[in-house]
Amino acid sequence: MSTTFNPSSAPLATERSVEAKAPAGIDPRGPQFAASLTAVVLVAVLLLPPTAALALTAVQAALFALGAARGVQRTPHAWLFKTFVRPRLSAPTELEAPEPPRFAQAVGLGFTVVALIAYAAGGVVVAQTAIGFALVAALLNAVFRFCLGCEMYLLFRRATS
Questions:
Q1: C-beta separation of 97 from 23 below 8 A
Q2: Residues 83-123: tens digit of each pLDDT
Q3: Region 13-30: what's the mean pLDDT?
Q4: pLDDT tens digits, residue range 64-78?
Q5: What's the DSSP call for residue 81?
Q6: Stretch 124-136: mean pLDDT, rounded?
């Protein structure tokens, strides 16, 4: 479940010049594709010895940081999706607001940072638990298109408005 962006309800080009620029929607299959790749990486982290797991966790943390800082539409996963997957698919039936997936990337970053600190301190069980939580979230998105971080974002927005 995610927030959708309806292009027909977006302001016209003339209205955009007067209002703040309307956020562009993203194809929701892109973050789902990224979640699939992330799930594969996180499974590998759990299967590797701690030293290699630490290195791969650092790579995944960097990817999450990039998605949180620049948005999911500006990540290596998005480039792969746009270049190799998206051209083979029909147009999306709806677009998604980019803010919830961006927040989800920050949540993933939090879990991988906890894992990095735990691996570095020798706390393998804590690190694997943090990776396990991130893996569950990635699998929910990859398999069921249920973005847990996106839902957290929406709940937070409702609670603060």
A1: yes
A2: 999 999 999 999 999 999 999 999 999 999 999 999 999 99
A3: 62
A4: 999 999 999 999 999
A5: I
A6: 98
Q: How far is CA 106 from the centre of its chain?
A: 8
Distance from C-alpha of 153 to C-alpha of 36, rounded to nearest angstrom: 21
Whole-Å CA distances, 47 to 60, 74, 136: 15, 29, 15
Min mean pLDDT across 5-9, 71-75, 110-114, 156-160 is at 5-9
Contact 27, 91 (CB under 8 A): no
CB neighbour burial string for 94-131, b if at least 16 within 10 angstroms, e if fewer:
ebbbbbbbbbbbbbbbbbbbbbbebbeeebeeebbebb
pTM of the model: 0.85
Residue position matching structure tokens 């943090």:
130
Angstrom distance (rounded) from CA 86 to CA 33 = 10
Give the burial class of 48: count Cβ atoms within 10 A of its Cβ; 0-12 exposed, 13-18 middle, 19 or more buried. Answer: middle
Are residues 98 and 22 in contact, defined by beta-carbon separation less than 8 angstroms?
no
Distance CA 87, CA 118 (A): 41
Alpha helices in the chain (DSSP H): 13-18, 29-47, 50-70, 76-80, 99-121, 124-144, 148-160
